[in-house]
Amino acid sequence: MPITFAHPTTADRVTANLRPESIVISPRYAESYSFDRAGRLLSLFLDGRSFQRTLDHRLLVRDKGGDRRRIELPDAERDALLDRAFTTLATLAAALPQAGLPAEQAGPLAEALSLIGRMGPAALAADGAAYRGLFLPVSILPPDQYLALVVQATIGCSWNRCTFCGLYRDRSFRVRGVEEFRQHCQAVRDFFGAGLSLRRGLFLADANALTVPQPRLLDLIQVAQAILGAPDQPRPLFSFVSAFDAGRKSAEDWAALRCLGLSRVYIGLETGDDDLLRFVAKPGDSAAAIQAVRDIKAGGIAVGVIAMIGLGGDRFAEQHVSSTVRAISAMPLDAEDVIYLSAYREAPQTEYPSLAAGAGIRPLAPDEERAQRQAFQAALRARLPNTRVAPYHVEGFAL
């Protein structure tokens, strides 16, 4: 429901949009706030800058340097900004009876502002603490899954030895038991409450969750769908799988998962060059990755294939592009699939930087990285014109 009116005391143009899944309030020009249907603040635009509130109650803002990186505000600055925002919204709520809105607009807007007021700064801080108690940090999601409802069926990464990746070094891999996972899903449902309406699908985390043996995996997905799925059909389900572990499942296994809602599987290929795969300690070769995608597609599931720009530096640059394009081109990708290009960024406490330096490998300069991205884009779009090629900014991720 879109609503527009003049603020009774300031004459500012106020706009609001009350959607089934979200609430957006703009109390004046160039200032706006968005919330889920539990009244949980999601983002704000203020003083010409866009801020994102994470579920663990951090406030992030885009770095003025122009890249995709977000920086976290200090707690005091976050709290001051939130106090300012909620004071503005409380003033609007108090003035609303004088706005002269028709009852069919005034009632729902007053109810929305009351809900938002109850989820003010103190309640948001408590909400963030509750989230931190419910989840181990969700290290990464694909770009199209940032509004997914994440459930952690596994903890950590089953391989966790790739020399460039530090996402799961803080935890050991384990698979949750069915009853433990049931309790986790119930807690996720209770945490989000009415905010569930904003979440587009289910994401089965952590890394490589789909490598769980098939009987246990089917049980876990059935639990998630029973608690969090739509009443008449499963929620669309998404997850990561290692290209080099996916071969443990047959096309028939993937088809069975498709029946439970699995819609897209994301595969970190990184490179199609077998020499580079060995250098970064990936546990397989490009032929295994190609066969894995063929089996997944035969099971009726879409894929997102991730290749890494800059991996292997100057030493591997030429063969990295040619071999990766050749490997991805051998996969039966179509319009349902996505190829993601993600730039390598040095991660703390990983082995790759010292290994590369010891081997005399020079990182790509920014212009070389751009050229490699363009080479990938041109070659992949020429060979797979029906498959989308999209950026994947790992450094921009935050829930």
Walk me through what this model shows.
- The chain is an alpha/beta fold.
- The chain folds into 2 domains: 2-124, no CATH class; 135-396, Alpha-Beta Barrel (TIM Barrel), CATH 3.20.20.
- The protein is built from 11 helices and 17 strands.
- It has helices spanning 75-95, 103-118, 121-134, 178-192, 214-228, 251-259, 274-279, 286-298, 313-329, 352-358, 366-383; strands spanning 2-6, 13-18, 22-28, 31-36, 41-46, 49-53, 59-62, 70-72, 149-152, 154-155, 174-175, 202-205, 237-241, 262-270, 302-309, 338-343, 388-391.
- The strands form 3 sheets. Strands 1-2-3-4-5-6-7-8 form an 8-stranded antiparallel beta sheet, covered by helices on one side. A 7-stranded parallel beta sheet has the order 9-12-13-14-15-16-17.
- α6 links the parallel β13 (237-241) and β14.
- α1 packs antiparallel against α2, α4 runs parallel beside α5 (214-228) and α6 crosses α8.
- It starts with a strand and ends in an 8-residue tail after the last strand.
- The model has no long low-confidence stretch (mean pLDDT 91).
Largest sheet: 8 strands, antiparallel
Overall 3D geometry? globular
Count of discrete alpha- or pi-helical segments spanning 4 or more residues: 11
Structural class, please?
Answer: alpha/beta
The CATH superfamily of the largest domain appears as Aldolase class I
Top CATH class of the largest domain: Alpha Beta
- Predict the CATH topology of the largest domain: TIM Barrel
Query: Which strands sit side by side, in order, in the main sheet?
Result: 1-2-3-4-5-6-7-8
Uncertain ranges: none
Helix proportion range: 25-40%
- Over all CA atoms, what is the radius of gyration? 23 Å
Average residue-wise pLDDT = 91
Percent strand: 15-25%
State the total count of DSSP E strands. Answer: 17
